[in-house]
Amino acid sequence: xxxxxxxxxxxxxxxxxxxxxxxxxxxxxxxxxxxxxxxxxxxxxxxxxxxxxxxxxxxxxxxxxxxxxxxxxxxxxxxxxxxxxxxxxxxxxxxxxxxxxxxxxxxxxxxxxxxxxxxxxxxxxxxxxxxxxxxxxxxxxxxxxxxxxxxxxxxxxxxxxxxxxxxxxxxxxxxxxxxxxxxxxxxxxxxxxxxxxxxxxxxxxxxxxxxxxxxxxxxxxxxxxxxxxxxxxxxxxxxxxxxxxxxxxxxxxxxxxxxxxxxxxxxxxxxxxxxxxxxxxxxxxxxxxxxxxxxxxxxxxxxxxxxxxxxxxxxxxxxxxxxxxxxxxxxxxxxxxxxxxxxxxxxxxxxxxxxxx
Length: 357
Ligand code: NAD
Ligand code: TYD
Hints:
Distance between the termini: 52 Å
Largest sheet: 7 strands, parallel
Order of helices and strands: EHEEHEHHEHEEHEEHEHEHHHH
Number of strands: 11
CATH architecture of the domain at 3-195 and 229-255 and 296-316: 3-Layer(aba) Sandwich
Helix content: 40-55%
CATH topology of the domain at 3-195 and 229-255 and 296-316: Rossmann fold
Number of helices: 12
Bound molecules: nicotinamide-adenine-dinucleotide, thymidine-5'-diphosphate
């Protein structure tokens, strides 16, 4: 692993992964290919090493010629494919973009890898890896008491987002099976931590609470997610790139499965502690109309990754949430830039106005 192409590296998890990677291996060369959609920002990449080790290419994963040229010219041996449309609520408002980016984009990435790595034989097979980043949402939803998902469970995606990711997983697997492309896949649960775009539950709640705005909890707030601190996800990916087997998929999860309302209440407790004075942040909680087709419960069994590579999450939920709140408090400049350069205001209007009625 010398020359790594990261797609979507200006987004939440991709940027955290690039920071993590340079902290582990200052000697690697990283090319970050990102289209800078509303979700991507170069603000997320401040503080990276000198240009020699890191370069940013603004471009689309659907541009096959660009991807092939990058693979050849930068002698890429490892692709870590994060780029995607990632928000379930947006997929409900506009599914087509999700199929375009997540399904077609992944197909074009795989096709470029097949052309340059396999057809042109740029590098020996054992030197290359295509790592596809996916989600636990491909598995659907669990009833109370159901066991956590293992890698063997059948796919049953419920939202357009989950369906597009499921499709991309199948295509990635098929490229491994049919063409012998060394593909590995991770299905990970909900991430949280620094640099997450404030359309997702945790940063939305933190920033709304700091501004004294309502905290919109969908439905009864009893939906369950398996929360993982983003740095733990980055470590899992890194270990799989180093020691994981091609042709395998690995589940990654946090082992933290509180209801959404518990998460929001914990954030309010933390904010009451860190920002005392005035009314408690708990007063801002507001129940709003539920998400259509809302999955009730997710839980990941990550024992394969633990058994084979010795990985387990390092952050418990309380400490992870505390670190996350502190990060948002300590980075008001980031928050301001994200507000300026994204469509967040329009999105809030679109997603929440009707819901609150
Ligand atoms: P994000 O929305 O924060 O970032 C996505 C990035 O991809 C952005 O920088 C965006 O500009 C870029 N991008 C979008 N379309 C592109 C295109 N056509 N060409 C090039 N770049 C493009 O997403 P995230 O939360 O960091 O998620 C990253 C990956 O991890 C996704 O594949 C997602 O499905 C997966 N995942 C996310 C979570 C989570 O909780 N956030 C959990 C499990 C898996
Ligand atoms: P989200 O962060 O959008 O991630 P995902 O849909 O991929 O799990 O949402 C996490 C949970 O929080 C999900 O059950 C929906 C819920 N939620 C709210 O209750 N209110 C909100 O404003 C948002 C954005 C999410």
